[in-house]
C-alpha cells in the first residue's frame, strides 16, 4: 500500500476508535444493543389484478351496437380493389334489421334492431327471453 494511503487509513481508524465504532478490528453498530430494532411496517395485502386481454383480441363494440342485439357483429374494414389494382379503403357494416319480437315475460311485442345471426341464435335458444338470459353480463 502507498505510504500516503497508509497514513490516511491510520487517521480514519483512530477517528473510529475515538467514537467507539472500531475496536479490535470489528465495526460496531451505531444504535445501542439494548434497544431492539423497530419492526418494519406491515406490507399491504396483495390485490389480484384482473387479467387484461391483449388489445388485438379485444374488439370494442361500436356505438350503434349498443342500441340492439348484434350478436358480436362489428364493422369490418378492408380494401376495394379496382380492375387496375387501385386500392381504396371501405367498410362492411352488419346487416341490421328492425323486427318486432314477442317477449313472454312482458307478454307483448318489442320493436328491436337485430342481426340475422342473433335471430338464428335466438331460434335455437327458444325465444327472446331465453336468449337474453343465456347471454353473459359483459355482452349485454
Automatic annotation (TrEMBL):
It comes from the Eukaryota. This is 10184_t:CDS:1. It comes from Dentiscutata heterogama.
Amino acid at each position: 500500500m502507498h505510504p500516503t494511503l497508509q497514513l490516511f487509513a491510520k487517521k480514519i481508524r483512530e477517528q473510529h476508535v475515538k467514537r467507539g465504532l472500531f475496536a479490535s478490528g470489528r465495526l460496531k453498530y451505531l444504535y445501542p444493543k439494548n434497544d431492539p430494532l423497530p419492526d418494519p411496517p406491515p406490507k399491504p395485502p396483495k390485490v389480484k389484478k384482473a387479467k387484461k386481454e391483449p388489445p388485438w383480441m379485444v374488439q370494442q363494440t361500436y356505438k350503434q351496437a349498443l342500441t340492439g342485439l348484434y350478436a358480436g357483429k362489428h364493422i369490418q374494414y378492408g380494401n376495394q380493389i379496382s380492375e387496375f389494382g387501385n386500392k381504396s379503403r371501405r367498410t362492411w357494416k352488419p346487416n341490421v334489421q328492425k323486427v318486432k319480437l314477442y317477449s313472454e315475460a312482458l307478454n307483448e311485442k318489442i320493436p328491436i334492431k337485430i342481426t340475422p345471426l342473433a335471430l338464428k341464435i335466438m331460434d335455437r335458444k327458444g325465444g327472446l327471453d331465453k336468449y337474453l338470459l343465456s347471454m353473459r353480463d359483459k355482452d349485454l
